[in-house]
Amino acid sequence: MGDDLAELDINPLIASAAGVHAVDARFVLTAPVAAGPSSSAQPSPAGPASTSAASDVLEYYRPLFRPRTVAVLGASTRSVAIANTFIRRLKAYGYDGEIYPIHPNAPEVEGLPAYPGLAETPRPVDYAYVAIGAAQIPDVLGAAAGRCCFAQVISSGFGETEEGEAMQRTLVEQARAGGVRVLGPNCLGTYSPRGKLTFPADAPAEAGGIGIVSQSGGLSTDIIKRGQWRGLRFSGLVTIGNSADIAPHDLLAYYLHDPDTRAIGLYLEDIKNGRAFFDLLRNAPVAKPVVILKGGTTSLGRLAASSHTGALAGNERAWDAMAAQTPVAMVQTVDEFINALLALQHLTPRSQRPTHAVTLFGNGGGSSVLGADSFAREGLEVAPFGPAARAALEALGFPPGTSVVNPIDTPVRTLQEKDGWVAGEILDLVYEHARPDAVAMHLNLAAFVGRGAVDPIGNLLAVVEQTQRKWAGQAHFLLALRSDGSPELDDGKRVYRERARAVGVPVFDEIPDLAKALAVVSVLETRLAAWQAARGR
After folding, report:
1. Which stretches make up the CoA-binding domain (predicted)?
2. How far apart are CA 259 and CA 529, in angstroms?
3. Going by C-beta distance under 8 Å and a sequence separation of 6 or more, which residues neighbour residue 299?
4. Where are the domains of the chain?
5. What is the pTM of this model?
6. Residue 325, number of CB atoms within 10 A of its CB
């Protein structure tokens, strides 16, 4: 490029035996250069800049997360239409704004007045649900006349196929001309408990602190429903499909500024603007933990991603390099993703004291041994207590079969002493003398069945509540409740899980799940420390 090149920034640069690879690069030119034709060119983003004030970012995306008016394109006089299902779900979920079915000639759909187009609704539209033929959509959005903020396009047939790429570009161009930002196409939409907006049925109405961006609608439904039963609650979840207009970094910026979001999860198959994404994470206005589940990290996965959302998925090492320089943790499965976010829903990463030393406490010798192995595999340590902690615990005079060296292995009969309140004495001594970074308690619920009228698990949870108050901030506390799968135990487990969640304790099904989630917290603590040091904080 000769004299036209003023600056070249390559970051990250990966060196290996196979050679040196520039994963991302930024060119700064000395003078404007005319742009030639490009099959991947898109209109410039119309949203707030990355340097915008928090209030500007939050207000810009308010219609997406808290819409006052929703238009439904594809609404039909036949109740089986997918758009009609969306209307019924909105009503059932308690949406209290105005719903405008869009139909060329029907006066009424689903008991609501219908309108022929976006330009004819009584009030401007905050959020449009678009479920009509792909070929019609560009012209329909182009005719919005500035009366629609966001259009979620569920229809497919765009950039996920080679034939649809040109139509996808036209879609975005026409939408911009009509003053509309596009979510998708090829996406299921937005789940926002705060705005009473949903696409899955029976989604939890309670809002929480987890914000999600996903390039898969079906996977998002899994995350919502499976997360619901584990205690996960969301500030919002947005599916973006092909990301033709609104990109992952746009919504990442929203969640970083959103005071109700404490942790962010991203399921991604590709990033079209890697530099904007990386710069936003590296220069984030606030330190919020981010968990990324990346699809398409293998050759076959990349092939599947390209047919799913038209993704051009990147190299796994590039993503790892990006994560290492930012407050980000990478996970590999949906379960790991949900469990990591469950931990972050309750635990605040401590950059000044990354988690390493763990006390493992519960019933079942074999489970304790396997649990120690699980933590070791994740880079965490269940190390024997020092003399002071051991002496203090041994002074409690537990019966034979109880081990207090770490793991603390206590038979059920020990945990039932004082109707379960003995656990409080154990935990007080652990916090006072061992001072671990985290305490992981595990209980085999089946072992407590039929052992008297007292509910020792309930009392143990009361002990946990007291411990959380008495030793607030000293150590992360996590709980694994193991069940044999019987309906009786699973019903009880749900009750115990909700009780623990109410006092800020994440509950997992198995010790390995807990260990992996805590390891994510530890990684984030280390990376947050490096991120803060680099910024002089």
Report:
1. 64-158
2. 21
3. none
4. 60-183, 189-345, 358-533
5. 0.88
6. 16
